[in-house]
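Re: the multi-chain job from yesterday

Posting the exact lines I submitted so nobody has to dig through the queue logs.
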Amino acid sequence: MKRMLNEAPSFREEMIGGYAAAFGRYLQCVPGASGVMANGSPAPGRVAVVVGGGSGHYPAFYGLVGQGLASGAAIGDIFTSPPGEQCYRVAKAVDGGAGILFTFGNYSGDVMNFAMAETRLRDEGIDARTVLITDDVLSASPAEADLRRGIAGGFYVFKSAGAAAARGDSLGDVEALTRHANERVRTAGVGFAGCTVPGQEEPLFSVAPGQMEIGLGIHGEPGVRIGEQRPAREIAAMLVETLLAETPAGAGSEVAVLVNGLGGTKYEELFVLYNDVAPLLEAAGLHPYKPLIGEFVTSLDMTGFSLSLFWLDDDLKTLLDATASSPAFTNIGPEVTRRREAVGGGRETVSAAAAVAPSAPEATTAQGDDSIPGGETGARARAALRNALTAIAEMEAELGRLDAAAGDGDHGAGMVRGLRAAVAATDDFEGTARQTFINGGTAFQDAAGGASGALVGAWLIAIGTGLPERDEAVDAAALAEALDGALATLQRLGQAQAGDKTMIDTLAPFGVALNESAASGATIPQAWAAALPAAAAGMLATIDMISRRGRASRLGERSRGIQDAGATSMYHVLLAFGKGFSTFVPVMAARSPRQAP
Ligand code: ADP
Ligand code: MG
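And the result, structure tokens for all chains:
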């Protein structure tokens, strides 16, 4: 696969550099953060709308930063949620004093990372709220509509949020209108071929000749089902029928229509599709309003497209028509005035932070006492992190393959980035095991991104905060207790249970076994070794499970038969930690006082 790139790890940074250099008339880089902000921000007294997600989706999300659209965007690595720290920094940079509205697609990595930023802003007294985009009707049943993922229809949600914020609506009103926009948009899509991540040779999935994936994801996730390749008119009929079956309550007859290409489909093909869509809508008594045909959310070079319908009312039409100017979307509209009443007044505000991550603050604000001298256990903890990096780096490609089978293929890369940062942050450190895990976990969280960046980072930090202050007090029982606490933190953050086909399935049985052998008086290396078989069995058990958390959960039965990527990486992390904990550490060296900073 030929790609315009220097070295794969610097792809994101170089891409943002070129983007900001070209579009300085709309936006600039956020100093010290992976993101961009609109010129003129922070806008005093205006709500700041912050979007974001992994890259590889241009013009989502940072193409929509500008006047009348998003105030800022946090930009992650390809298909990987930006770390919570980066979301926080972008929000801080654009905060104009009237609050922050986060809006982004419903993916567990994004939800967890933005929730951390939201919690932190609220702790500082900045009002921050979240509206998740859930337009993909094929990704979950109507009964589970709030579990649906966000795809191209998100454009209308961003546009509504940005227009409401630009005219000076209060945070409560911007939030209510954004939520209302999300409730009025529905999308369904089809994929003809998978996409290839820069630096990799193979596409994330491939589609057999004569077939197509129905209900595709925008991270190279395959569709929820496979169908026979059909002519455009039949695909149009299938998509229109699917969307109309989900007409929102109270919807009128005017609909904005968006035909979105996924990156590898020509505009001409999209026009062919619209040629079939328009009469079907008219036949159903709907009036298409200002159709948009083009690329709004891509998935690298994936071929395929989606159809979105956005059922308008007076409020939403006004917001859609409002002036906007950003690199990827410009509209000159009439002057709009501030609205008076909130849509669905009194609707309860649900913040992502409150909904999903009661434990998020401990993950980002964990502090400890760096000055307590470390002993052998601290040195062994650092050996554990180093071993984990070596082990996971060796299997990076394999973990990517496991993740690609049902997810987006980035798990190995994210784990390596995180562990590399954890090792770099602790390597010449001589503190305690407690401090090593806290510092390493914090660095992991900031570097890795994605669901596992938030989860594994929080897990490492929680191991640290669960350990005794002094290394001398760390025995097998104390370590087992810290692992129990870390598992509880991870479960609070990710809301997964054993059996959901996640890393929990490795960690939970390991914790039970570790406690048992610690109770029998074993040393740390003995107890750890005795518990590893339970972790291995848990990892293997994920093969037969159906995914119920994370990206893969949208695939239902199609996720069965593949070992979970996170369960696999965590088993190898535990295996590597065991080797680290039994490393011989010369006591004198390990006990030497900390170097002066
Ligand atoms: P992303 O899903 O953001 O691409 P990764 O690919 O790095 O993140 O990690 C995927 C792994 O994370 C999955 O294989 C699963 O083990 C784990 N995972 C995803 N969501 C959750 C969750 N809510 N709770 C626990 N583990 C999860
Ligand atoms: Mg992934």
